[in-house]
Amino acid sequence: MKLIAAFCLLALFGLTNADIQADKLYELLKAKRSRNSPVVNTWSATDEATNEYSPVYIPPQDGLAEQDKIGSLPGQPSGVDFNQYSGYVTVNPTAGRALFYYFVESPTDSSNKPLVLWLNGGPGCSSMIGAMSELGPFRITNDGKSLFRNDYAWSNVANMLFLESPAGVGFSYSNTTSDYDHAGDKNTADDAYIFIVNWLERFPQYKTRDFYITGESYAGHYVPQLALNIVFNNKKTNQTIVNIKGIAIGNAWIDDETSEKGMYDYWWTHAVNSDATHDAILKYCDFANETSTDMCDKSTDKAWDEMGNVDIYNIYAPICLNPDLRNASTTGSINDFDPCWQYTLVNYLNNSAVQKELHVKPTSWDVCSDVIPGWNDSPVTILPTIKYLIENGQRIWVFSGDTDARVPITSSRYSVNALNLPIVTAWRPWYLNKEVGGYLEAYQGLLLITVRGAGHTVPSYQPERALTLFSSFLGGMLPPSS
Ligand SMILES: *[C@@H]1O[C@H](CO)[C@@H](O)[C@H](O)[C@H]1NC(C)=O
Ligand SMILES: *[C@@H]1O[C@H](CO)[C@@H](O)[C@H](O)[C@H]1NC(C)=O
Ligand SMILES: *[C@@H]1O[C@H](CO)[C@@H](O)[C@H](O)[C@H]1NC(C)=O
Ligand SMILES: *[C@@H]1O[C@H](CO)[C@@H](O)[C@H](O)[C@H]1NC(C)=O
Ligand SMILES: *[C@@H]1O[C@H](CO)[C@@H](O)[C@H](O)[C@H]1NC(C)=O
Fold this sequence. Notes:
Layout: H1 17-21, H2 24-32, H3 64-68, E1 84-92, E2 97-104, E3 115-119, H4 128-134, E4 138-140, E5 147-149, E6 159-163, E7 173-174, H5 185-202, E8 211-216, H6 219-236, E9 244-250, H7 256-269, H8 275-284, H9 294-307, H10 341-349, H11 352-357, H12 383-391, E10 395-401, H13 409-417, E11 423-432, E12 435-443, E13 446-451, H14 458-461, H15 463-475
Parallel strand pairs: 3-6, 3-8, 8-9, 9-10, 10-13
Antiparallel strand pairs: 1-2, 2-6, 2-7, 4-5, 11-12, 12-13
Helix pairs in contact: 5-6, 6-12, 7-13, 8-9
Bound molecules: 2-acetamido-2-deoxy-beta-D-glucopyranose (NAG) (5 copies).
The site of one 2-acetamido-2-deoxy-beta-D-glucopyranose has 3 residues, from loops.
Protein name: Carboxypeptidase
Keywords: Carboxypeptidase, Disulfide bond, Glycoprotein, Hydrolase, Protease, Secreted, Signal
Signal peptide: 1-18
């Protein structure tokens, strides 16, 4: 019931297509379509009726926030005008399991801004990707040593909380290493719920604040599942109610069948695959069936081969040709995304001075987990979970960078179409600085919105458009139509 190897939607440490194929999502999906499949049952709303609430508060949390306050991150620019905190929150004292967080308050009027959790995917990849390569207050210069300010940080409009989850990812750990063998969607969501309840005890001023969960990629599972956990528990708990208002998920893997089909359709329509290969996939692959066939596998292998060595996460971006020969003296620019960002990120976070300032024990930090051996459960679809959240009044935005070929816009469209929701605002462009920022279609209970010219990690490539989208999401308003 387990995956074999390291797999990662985001950690394409490799530079060749063969390595790209070793990404975590690829391996997970392959395992799901094999005889050795992880559990694929869908969570159902009937879970709500079962088990009583068991208290999850792990005292004491008083005074820990002050200890978690970051003085100054190594290499950070002068003039930093906001508070940063980081550290561990224990989620299981018996096992000795703790999750790492990095929290950034908004520079202005933070006490009137919402609290937003960000999760990256994998499964098994770090949310510090989001914090330091996408939407956080800083990006790292490509020498891996200094930081520069992100003018379009999401912390401009919200208090941003980044969580490394589950244990075994990044700085998050367990003293009971057999915990890593039990990684899967269910345990990830359960620990993340315990995390947020205890984090709110540590930062009680945020207890009643509007709360949103955002994320991308395999967080298309994590985010709705955690939201569901919160909504369930809010109905039962005699502890802290988490004031959840909505979720936004980007290039999100939410349904195996529609996402797989959408991926190969995108490849064909974006000149990555031949007619013959696409026809063969249509003929031989039944993505509704969790068991694959040899002919289908042969066709999809061919499709990957035909793609060649492009960055699957943004097919029009340059690739990282040689991380060792990069020009280390370049200063970073927010509008010029570093194709070697993964090496840069490891350089920075695997540095002992940085780790000391982040209040973590010495760790060989990596973009995706090296210690989680497999993934034990992953529902074939999250659509029933999303439906439940809609019915419970949560705001749901599904956004998509339109140059991503990994979880492309076609996958998102097919997935959303499967919900069969009535259209409220017909497909239209949205604008930023007189240019089309992307397109949107509003359904009853859900918004589908694209970001033009963005890859899988949307804010990396289109930081200003991403911030416009995020502000609109928080305000519950569609971005401008002209
Ligand atoms: C894990 O073990 C170390 C060493 O005994 C201890 O300092 C730490 O507090 C433990 N972690 C948790 C979450 O209990
Ligand atoms: C409330 O939580 C406490 C533990 O914090 C528990 O002992 C008690 O039974 C709970 N009360 C109800 C009504 O659930
Ligand atoms: C799924 O695929 C397997 C292998 O080809 C086949 O034996 C089975 O009948 C299929 N199931 C459905 C429901 O189509
Ligand atoms: C590095 O970049 C600087 C500034 O753009 C340039 O002057 C220099 O020639 C570059 N060095 C190498 C080795 O490419
Ligand atoms: C992190 O640094 C340590 C010590 O320098 C090294 O052994 C380890 O391989 C590094 N980890 C990664 C992921 O590069």
